[in-house]
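Re: the 365-residue chain
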Amino acid sequence: MRITEMKSLIIGNLTATLPIVQGGMGVGVSLAGLASSVANQGGVGVIAAAGIGMFEPDSYTNYVEANIRALRKEIRKAREMTKGILGVNIMVALSDFAELAKAAIDEGIDIIFSGAGLPLKLPEISQGSDTKLVPIVSSAKAASIIAKRWMDKYNYLPDAVVVEGPKAGGHLGFKHDQLEEPQFSIEKLVTEVVAALKPFVEKFNKPIPVIAGGGIYTGEDIYNMMQLGADGVQMATRFVTTKECDASVNFKQAYIDAKPEDIAIIKSPVGLPGRAVRNDFIAEVEAGNRIPFKCPYHCIVTCDYLNSPFCIALALINAQKGIMKNGFAFAGENAYRATEIIPMQQLVDTIKEEYREAVESHVTA
């Protein structure tokens, strides 16, 4: 009898019976509500730290403190809602990256996921804690650099590595002309990252699970990634249209109403391409019109806020609140496939069934 259930994702002493890491979605799309509901299903629920303080009344005048306070609040709220595995996603590019990481560790968060740059000093911040450290990379080279640097300087290997391909939503770790190139496909990246980490796994006798992300949408996608050597997957887009997701109904409806041609690559003020659902706001920016704003804080290190046509943080918080005329929804390539807003339990049951069908179809093929 062939096993048709997904194998657990093991990260150190943590076991996720559902081998899915819910991708961190800022600003405010994945907070305690979504993260706890995924954790309750046996997956890894993730709170996104980016822009989290924008919900605080003093976010404009007390930016760093507001972010730290809000992050602590969401972690505590999520802990009250689940006994499952909780993580936070903290981008290296955030100007208050270190402060947020310290706060999350102080709150006893299970895992820190960190991308948008190389988190080379993260083990220094986490010394003495049980928090697992998982970098997010877009190449085998980046995975090797981080593993070597962490081992040389801190005698610490990544507890897992997320490799994120070019079909992901939000900011992408690729140049615009690389997004459709076969050599940057998630399938190729997974095998390359597994191979790059193998020498570290063998030399130091410690497993480094590889988690595949970017365009993973169905149970069949999960099966295919695991066949390539991935230990789990990171999914974000498909969780948006659940009742438990923290974004507004209007944000979720943008996915449901989207057609394939509406999923577009935009130029972000932070200097990276981003994938989003095209709407009137994006059209206005692309027409060369500037959306006036003041920048009370330089939230992302790479943001050219003096010359930017719009504020990415304000656009994303407006969308999260449902004010789509003043913002837009980041989304993965498959966002248009959403047809309705459903409960988390129904979604997870569907994904599991898709996985079983994929296994069975490969057995009979």
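The chain has a mean pLDDT of 91.
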